[in-house]
Amino acid sequence: MKRDSRNGIYEKLGKLINRETIAYVVAGVLTTAVNFISYEGLYRLGLTNLRANALAWIIAVSFAYIVNKRNVFLSRSASAKDEALKVIKFFGARLVTLGIEQLGMYIFIERLGFYRLLVKASMAVIVIVLNYAFSKLYIFNKNKE
Fold first, then answer.
1. Among 13-22, 53-62, 97-106, where is mean pLDDT lowest?
2. Most CB within 10 Å of its CB: which of 6, 15, 70, 144?
3. In this structure, is the dihedral angle defined by the CA atoms of residues 111, 112, 118 and 122, taken in order, positive or negative?
4. CB neighbours of 13 closer than 8 A, spacing ≥ 6?
5. Is residue 35 part of a domain?
6. Where are the transmembrane segments (predicted)?
7. Cβ distance 94 to 53 under 8 Å?
8. Residue 136: which residues within 8 A CB-CB, separation 6 or more?
């Protein structure tokens, strides 16, 4: 009986952990590094917390689009129009998660006084999960390509 339940667990893990999810984790780590390095550099240059975060977001999302399209979801565009639609969807979905991140940073840093890098890291986890869901189901959906 235990052997069957273990096989079921391994089977479920095998479906969850595959080339795409591993590539997404690597891309997510790299994108998060780009975001954090950009944010910290812009913050040290004198930008406010939220402005530094917004500009770091633009840099990181531009990087993420290329990496996700080419290396994670192996997406191809049939035409320039198809590519433009994917870019718009990608940035639109990322705008939603930016809003969530900005709100979280505002509440926890500006209002409640939490340590900014701890909040930034915590929000990054939430954003990564949401971004994967948007990318997988809405932007680079192979069934719609």
1. 13-22
2. 70
3. negative
4. none
5. yes
6. 21-38, 50-67, 87-108, 114-134
7. no
8. 73
Of 52, 32, 51, 30, the C-alpha closest to 40 is 52
Per-residue pLDDT for 1 more than 70?
Answer: no
Domain assignment of residue 56, yes or no: yes
Please tell me the pTM assigned to this model: 0.72
Domain of 23, in residue numbers: 2-139
Separation between Cα atoms, residue 57 and residue 31, nearest integer Å: 10
* Residue 145 counted as domain residue: no
Number of domains in the chain: 1
Residue 144 belongs to a domain: no
6: number of Cβ within 10 Å:
10
